[in-house]
Design brief:
Strand 5 and strand 6 form a beta hairpin. Helix content is about 20%, strand content about 35%. The protein has about 220 residues and is α+β, with helices and mostly antiparallel strands. It holds the Pfam family DUF6266.
Length: about 220
């Protein structure tokens, strides 16, 4: 049922027959009710939904970083839509039983070439920290003006849908970054990604780089 707010000259809200009235700010507009689809989904539709669900679940614990990492990828779309579109097209592969994520092809960010050329990482169980150290291509960094860019480090556990990220952000030239971990119930295999983000107002990012896995 449609409701008139603030008297006869007020706005409409709700459903009237096959029309829904919606108010957005000072504007009220009407739209038709969506028709119920009685047809069974096609094989292509089922597969598409399966692929989308797979990427959506893995992405759920890293939404903030995806919005940073894909902000400039396509300025005509929102960052999250950019991330979903890219990873659906590049990071999902068909298996004998359905679909799986190709974690090496998955991107948390997309942009400039990632300058990391070599890296090591370790976990300190006593201090509950993960530390990444790296070397990088200095010529590539200089050409892309990345020396002062901030490190964004992600440890993501798809099975638990949880992730750890760094709070303090070191720069590329500092060659190391630490992430504080928590024991609690977050036990499992974590996928490691790193990228660099310019803080000069441009919001330019490098491609994220997949570094492998770590148990925690």
């Amino acid at each position: 049922m449609a409701i008139i707010k603030n008297g006869a000259n007020g706005t409409l809200s709700g459903k009237a027959g096959s029309v829904v009235f919606v108010t957005n700010g000072n504007t009220t507009y009407a739209r038709g009710l969506p028709k119920k689809n009685k047809k069974e989904p096609t094989t292509d539709q089922i597969q598409s939904r399966s692929r989308f669900s797979l990427i959506q679940k893995f992405s759920s614990s890293m939404l903030y970083l995806l919005r940073v990492g894909f902000k400039n990828y396509n300025l005509n779309k929102k960052a999250y839509s950019n991330a979903m579109s890219y990873n659906l097209n590049h990071a999902v592969e068909k298996t004998a039983t359905g679909y799986a994520i190709n974690y090496e092809n998955f991107r948390v960010s997309k942009g400039l070439p990632n300058p990391i050329s070599d890296y090591t990482f370790q976990i300190d169980k006593e201090t509950e920290t993960f530390t990444l150290s790296w070397d990088y291509d200095t010529k590539l960094s200089a050409a892309s003006d990345l020396n002062a860019s901030s490190c964004r480090l992600l440890l993501s556990c798809p099975e638990e849908e949880v992730a750890f990220t760094n709070e303090g952000m070191n720069t590329l030239i500092q060659r190391t970054q630490m992430v504080k971990l928590q024991r609690q119930q977050h036990v499992g295999t974590y996928r490691i990604y790193v990228f660099f983000h310019k803080t000069d107002g441009s919001d330019e990012c490098t491609d994220s780089k997949y570094l492998g896995t770590v148990e925690w």
